[in-house]
Amino acid sequence: MKLFLLHFLAATAASAFVMSPPHMWTKLILTHHWPTTFCEMEHCQSTIDSWTLHGLWPDKGIECNSSWHFNVSLIEDLIPDMDKSWPDLISPESPKFWKYEWQKHGTCAAKAESLNSQHKYFSKALELYHKADLDSVLKKFGITPSKQYYPFAHIEEVIDSFYGIKSKIQCVHPSKNAVYQILGQIEICFTPDFSLMDCEKESSKKPLNSSVKAEAKSGFSVCDPNVPVYYPPMI
Ligand SMILES: *[C@@H]1O[C@H](CO)[C@@H](O)[C@H](O)[C@H]1NC(C)=O
Ligand SMILES: *[C@@H]1O[C@H](CO)[C@@H](O)[C@H](O)[C@H]1NC(C)=O
Ligand SMILES: *[C@@H]1O[C@H](CO)[C@@H](O)[C@H](O)[C@H]1NC(C)=O
After folding, report:
1. What pLDDT, on the 0 to 100 scale, is given for residue 20?
2. 3-state secondary structure labels for all residues of 175-191
3. Residue 141 has pLDDT above 80, yes or no
4. Which-ligand-closest: CA of 74?
């Protein structure tokens, strides 16, 4: 696991540090989702049993340039990998999801020179996704879909100690007082020059209060450290 970090460090040491203007984003969030959980929420059907990309999101800005239209022919060469690594779980075969992610997040990421084209943005997201290789990391440390619940701390410990950063792990909370929560989304964060960094400054150890939990019922929210985690097998 140290080799992995060295790889990242070596790759980024070569690029000069550039001061970013204050309006600029300062973090990139590589967001993975678990297709079974996603499809449970969105009523889609998925036969994918690996963590796929949800997006690469700058921490600041949404829809930064509405006149910069998505054009799938600019990323033609990436499509085979996009189909596998960044599938649209709701409408497979359609570029709708990529278009949405480009308009919402890509146009903001593109404020950085390193990401200022559709090809740069999508290929960098794929590159980071393959480097992080979250799916293999979880498998390697014995975290696989299971009917038995995992303690949240165990999953967090595996991910955070492997990457040497604080990740953000999100769950679906089936109901306010459910005895379990469903693992859904995992975020790994990067600096503007693509080295790993903490997703959140403060630890997520403090328990969620019940009104937050109720509000989160219909979507992903940070997992509650005190509630067992269900990592659902493919249906
Ligand atoms: C928005 O995108 C268009 C099309 O690529 C480009 O010509 C324009 O300079 C961009 N505007 C800003 C503010 O970046
Ligand atoms: C999309 O990109 C291709 C390749 O650069 C270009 O030929 C085509 O005109 C573009 N389509 C639109 C709608 O901009
Ligand atoms: C719980 O969280 C909500 C929403 O953030 C907040 O308004 C409320 O005051 C909190 N309640 C307690 C007891 O901390």
Report:
1. 56
2. CCCCCCEEEEEEEEEEC
3. yes
4. 2
